[in-house]
Design brief:
- About 30% of the residues lie in helices and about 20% in strands.
- It has a 15-stranded antiparallel sheet that branches. The protein has a three-stranded antiparallel sheet with strand order 24-25-26. A two-stranded antiparallel sheet has the order 16-17.
- β25 and β26 form a beta hairpin.
- The longest helix is centred in the last third of the chain and has 21 residues.
- It starts with 18 loop residues before the first strand and ends in a 14-residue tail after the last helix.
Length: about 625
């Protein structure tokens, strides 16, 4: 029998108030109250162990001063994903630090069963570590760890390890084993492991939740060393990047850290987001599982990572994409599991109330078998960018290039669900046609790199045919690129037209498209994907403005020479970052509240591109980073 989990009168934190932790193999979200409210094991797309994010009775791991739930301050230690929370109580002050621990590579006796990419010197230790220090007065500390396995359907059995009170395990049939190790005395109360103590000035304690055979810290000294090493890992990683000396540098670095944290090191995959079913509309039904890797993200990921100098991460993600394409070159999906899985069947968890009563709660994503014709262009642009980064066309990629270009050439005239994955009828979406053009255009360029000139000429002829068809049927009387053939509806995906070099930036149709979207598809200055009353997306209700679209508008405004307007919009968007520098999928145009899954990789990728566009336009320099394919002539 599933545990009874339902609606609670407790309120949910704002989405933007969660902190994001990662060890590049799993991740978690920490509420301002000091409660870990989202953790899935052993992978980010596995069933949850803590799910209070989606139901206040869904399990959590809280560490905070007794009777206090609002901290004095929160921050990441600079250059890291180590969270530091400062607590003030009527009697004293505490500092808590949280991290998913990184440590030396550990598979010495045998190879890893999960790693396909080359392991680095530092890897996940599979430990959620929490340290606490009293820095003034005295404070009553409270710890309460209540894991509920399989999306809160299975409770734990707690057992002591050894003769003392310092270590306990939580188990359930068929579920990952958890071990809680602490310098505190742990007690067992029903489904929870708890600890209480009075801390005085200078006192320190640790609590470590481990979920593999790797040993967790056993002493405070070991815990402090593990926390320091984890911080050093992130600082050293960030130092490898190339960032401009500019006031917006911190936003670029926060985005880089978020993207690294959303990566899955064993395969190189990049998660679209860390969560499922955070609502696009308050208490609405537009709730989706984003814990998968979209082919569409590949181009934008490589633009962003190469631009900031993170070539290794870019290459790892590229080879994840290459792996899934090589397995089935004639049947490319729009998305895959982070291990390359093809079947991502969607289901509903009726026993969870949903974030702030937004239902249904979905796991899996049935969009995996949709027809979305932008996938070939995204892949080919990625391969082209990868080839340009090393000035050669890798021979082992040539069969993949041929298979995908021929797919785009054969099917570009067909309708599809579009890049927004509408669940209404298939349409002739203009952005999909443009991405088919990208597939043929980049394919032709790659063919010339491959010294296959005859093939290049053939593909270029098809690219020219697609280009002409779009301009004949996808432009309205105003000279604006529209959402779909036969319609005058606008679509923010057309902001990509200048970035993908479909037309020159000074073409009047590009200028008209960008300015019309800016003026007519915006709400309080932020950009909608489309207007729901003009698009049959198979869903009901409203949605917020998509932050990625607003950042696309920044880049597109720079492209058409509207640099001051772009700068003003970018400045406004950056002001809406979460307190820890993160972004969800959407912003409510009235309140600025973050909506949708969090943190959202696509948004941070668009931020990197937009900020880079504005800085380069203002400073008239490209003195930092790789110049990506979207800047090619």
């Amino acid at each position: 029998m599933p545990l009874q989990v339902g609606w609670s009168t407790a309120t949910f934190p704002n989405i933007a108030d969660y902190a994001f932790l990662s060890d590049c193999e799993t991740n978690c979200l920490v509420a301002p109250s000091g409660s870990v409210e989202w953790l899935c094991l052993p992978r980010p797309d596995s069933p949850s162990v803590f799910a209070a994010l989606l139901d206040r009775a869904g399990g959590c791991f809280r560490l905070n001063p007794f009777g206090v739930s609002v901290p004095a301050a929160r921050r990441y230690l600079p250059g890291t994903l180590v969270l530091e929370t400062t607590w003030q109580t009527p009697t004293g002050w505490l500092i808590v630090r949280d991290s998913l621990v990184m440590g030396p590579w550990h598979n010495i006796e045998e190879r890893s069963r999960t790693h396909r990419r080359a392991p680095t010197d530092v890897d996940a230790r599979h430990v959620l570590l929490r340290t606490v220090k009293c820095i003034s007065g005295s404070v009553d500390l409270s710890v309460d760890c209540e894991p509920l396995f399989d999306y809160a359907r299975v409770g734990p059995t707690w057992s002591y390890v050894g003769d003392g009170y310092g270590e306990v395990t939580a188990t359930a049939p068929g579920q990952p084993a958890l071990r809680l190790t602490s310098s505190l005395r742990i007690g067992l109360e029903g489904r929870s492991a708890v600890a209480r103590t009075k801390m005085s000035l200078g006192d320190s304690h640790f609590v470590a939740l481990s979920f593999s055979e790797l040993p967790p810290p056993q002493t405070m000294a070991e815990a402090e060393d593990a926390m320091w090493r984890t911080g050093e890992y992130w600082r050293e990683w960030l130092t490898r990047g190339t960032f401009p000396d500019h006031p917006w540098r911190t936003y670029l670095q926060s985005s880089a850290l978020a993207l690294k944290g959303l990566s899955y090191a064993p395969t190189g995959a990049l998660l679209a987001a860390a969560t499922t079913s955070l609502p696009e509309t308050p208490r609405g039904a537009r709730n989706w599982d984003y814990r998968f890797s979209w082919i569409r993200d590949s181009t934008f990921a490589l633009w962003g990572l190469y631009t900031l100098g993170f070539d290794r991460e870019a290459n790892d993600f590229f080879y994840f994409i290459s792996d899934v394409c090589r397995d089935n070159p004639g049947d490319l999906q729009i998305m895959y599991g982070i291990g390359g899985e093809r079947t991502l069947t969607e289901s509903v968890l009726d026993h969870l109330s949903g974030y702030d009563d937004a239902s249904p709660v979905r796991v899996g994503n049935d969009a995996y078998d949709q027809r979305q014709h932008d996938v070939w262009g995204a892949l080919l642009d990625s391969i082209y960018l990868h080839a340009r980064s090393r000035d050669q066309m890798p021979e082992d990629l040539w069969p993949i290039v041929k298979a995908q270009v021929e797919q785009a050439a054969a099917r570009w005239r067909e309708p599809d669900q579009g890049m927004w994955e509408v669940r209404g009828p298939a349409q002739h979406f203009v952005s999909s046609k443009i991405m088919c053009w990208v597939a043929l255009d980049r394919g032709a360029r790659l063919a010339r790199l491959h010294d296959s000139d005859a093939t290049a000429d053939k593909w270029q002829a098809v690219a020219d045919e697609i280009h002409a068809d779009i301009l004949a049927h996808g432009v309205d009387e105003r000279g604006v690129l529209v959402q779909r053939y036969g319609s005058t509806a606008l679509d923010a995906s057309l902001l990509l037209a200048p970035l993908l070099r479909f037309l020159p930036s000074d073409d009047p149709r590009i200028r008209a498209t960008v300015l019309t979207i800016a003026d007519e598809l915006s709400h309080n200055g932020f950009v909608l994907r489309y207007r729901v009353d003009e698009t049959d997306d198979g869903m009901s209700g409203e949605e917020g403005t998509f932050t990625i679209c607003s950042f696309w508008l920044v880049s597109a405004l720079v492209e058409i020479g509207e640099v001051d307007r772009a700068h003003a919009l970018c400045e406004r968007l950056l002001s809406h970052a979460s307190p820890l520098g993160l972004y969800a999928e959407e912003l409510d145009p009235q309140t600025g509240r973050h909506l949708g899954n969090f943190p959202q990789a696509f948004t941070h990728l668009a931020l990197i591109n937009a900020v880079t566009h504005v800085i380069r336009a203002r400073e008239q320099t490209t003195a930092f980073g790789f110049t990506p394919a979207n800047r090619a002539g």
